[in-house]
Backbone:
């Protein structure tokens, strides 16, 4: 049985319901919309000004002001799982893609049998389907390449964090124009924006709608900014330790409750966090300017109203550097700061407009079914998805039915798996040794929070509500059991002695 067919139906009761609203009749668009899906990398909740942050993001804010702000949008805690989920509409754990990210020394990638967004949109008449930016769903084999997965154009990099100026990782350039690895000078954020604008200009006037996926690598490490972008952010302050690990957590427990690559030394390196926080501000600025260029290109082509623009981050901001306040946690963990991200959407002709806020809990698994509905391609009885069509919520209407939401991460240590189950306002987190099952619970830390009363996750209620904790433990363990025997390795596996292929070209 292939990884793509290993699935079970989970109980669908209870992600927090949206605020009551009147049913909204869907506007009748003349044809399916163009789609521009923009995903930031490691952007904190408060790293956009529409969430009250200190970094000015007028162009990202414009999407929210002209469209809608998504106040409860959830993703996976790290890069590759979010990308796998939004591309398939399915929990990435089903494909073995949730434990951690795919590294260049891992012979692993998203199951080639999985149907993903550009393939569905191709069948719906989207002739041009571009990916400009970061792929990160496998690079060791040709079958993982974007051009093998339904995209007609690829400009960007296949792997994870690389040098923003040289585009190198492990001494080899990872920058592609379709199949060709090229040496193209420029700051990667600017290059992504430039090629995205070019794609819009080339295809906005066609008879068929287009799909453009723009996954920026900003503001992911390494922390590198253009000198001219730094001065406005020289006064940014680092994020307090308590905002990451939670109030009252002793230093010896930081690595349990913190985020990506967490260590006490890293959190206590105030000078390093200060420097990188200020660089991050400049990196976000460059991305926002680029997003403004994309929005302007849509305006100039006369297709802005007929284009669904959807923006969000792939996970929370980096530990102590990205600003995820008022939420606890950061990239790499399942606290709200790691999985609840800044998000906004706009589609004027489709009724996604007005500048309001959507309180309905939506998530990255909803991207594929929503785009299928917008593209009139939703009748696919052969296609199993875990997400749901979010258009009713984006248009301000009620969302029928509640559902649970789950998350999982074990990227850096087999001793500290993180597992989460959310039902209504109740959220359970279990941190413990691999594999998390009933036997491992005795050595695990179990926490229960009520997000309606405690969105900052400061008050563990597991002792006060053992019956709720027990119910959610059962659901969480059922979700954890979805992971197939073959799955992405732990982060470090295969790194020692690794030599990158020439210009990161696949040899298989």
Residues:
């Amino acid at each position: 049985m292939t990884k793509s067919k290993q699935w079970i139906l989970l109980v669908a009761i209870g992600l927090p319901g949206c605020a009551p609203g009147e049913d909204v009749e869907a506007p009748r668009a003349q044809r399916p919309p163009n789609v521009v899906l923009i995903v930031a990398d490691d952007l904190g909740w408060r790293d956009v000004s529409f969430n009250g942050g200190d970094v000015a993001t007028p162009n990202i804010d414009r999407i929210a002001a002209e469209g809608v702000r998504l106040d409860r949008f959830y993703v996976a805690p790290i890069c590759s799982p979010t990308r796998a989920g939004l591309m398939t509409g399915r929990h990435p754990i089903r494909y073995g893609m949730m434990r951690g990210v795919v590294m260049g020394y891992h012979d692993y990638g998203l199951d080639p049998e999985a149907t993903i967004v550009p393939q569905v949109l191709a069948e719906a008449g989207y002739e041009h389907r571009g990916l400009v930016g970061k792929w990160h769903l496998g690079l060791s084999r040709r079958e993982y390449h974007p051009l093998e997965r339904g995209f007609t154009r690829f400009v960007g990099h296949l792997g994870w964090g690389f040098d923003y100026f040289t585009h190198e990782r492990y001494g080899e350039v990872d920058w592609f124009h379709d199949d060709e690895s090229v040496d193209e000078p420029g700051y990667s954020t600017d290059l992504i924006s430039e090629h995205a604008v070019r794609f819009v200009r080339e295809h906005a006037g066609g008879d068929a709608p287009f799909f453009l996926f723009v996954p920026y690598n900003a503001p992911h490490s390494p922390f590198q900014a253009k000198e001219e972008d730094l001065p406005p952010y020289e006064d940014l302050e680092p994020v307090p330790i308590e905002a990451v690990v939670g109030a009252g957590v002793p230093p010896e427990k930081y690595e349990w409750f913190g985020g990506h690559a967490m260590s006490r030394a890293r959190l206590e390196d105030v000078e390093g966090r200060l420097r990188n926080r200020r660089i991050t501000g400049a990196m976000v600025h460059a991305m926002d300017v680029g997003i403004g260029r994309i929005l302007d290109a849509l305006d100039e082509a006369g297709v802005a109203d007929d284009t669904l623009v959807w923006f969000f981050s792939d996970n929370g901001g980096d530990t102590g550097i990205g600003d995820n306040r008022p939420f606890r946690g950061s990239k790499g963990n399942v606290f709200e700061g790691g999985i609840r991200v800044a998000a906004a959407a706009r589609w004027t002709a489709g009724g996604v407009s007005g500048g309001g806020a959507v309180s309905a809990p939506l998530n990255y698994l909803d991207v594929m079914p929503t785009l299928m509905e917008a593209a009139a391609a939703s009748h696919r009885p052969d296609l199993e998805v875990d997400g749901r069509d979010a258009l009713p919520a984006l248009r301000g209407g009620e969302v029928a039915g509640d559902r649970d939401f789950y998350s999982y991460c074990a990227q850096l240590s087999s001793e500290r798996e993180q597992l989460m189950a959310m039902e209504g306002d109740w959220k359970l987190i279990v941190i413990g040794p691999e594999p998390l099952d009933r036997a491992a619970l005795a050595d695990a830390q179990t926490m229960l929070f009520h997000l309606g009363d405690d969105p900052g996750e400061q008050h563990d209620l597991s002792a006060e509500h053992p019956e709720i904790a027990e119910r959610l433990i059962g659901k969480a363990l059922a979700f954890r059991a979805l992971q197939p025997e073959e799955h992405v390795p732990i982060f470090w596996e295969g790194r020692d002695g690794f030599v990158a292929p020439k210009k990161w070209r696949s040899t298989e």
Q: What stands out?
A: The chain is about 25% helix and 15% strand. The first helix runs from residue 58 to 66. The longest strand covers residues 34-40. Residues 1-24 have pLDDT under 50 and may be disordered.
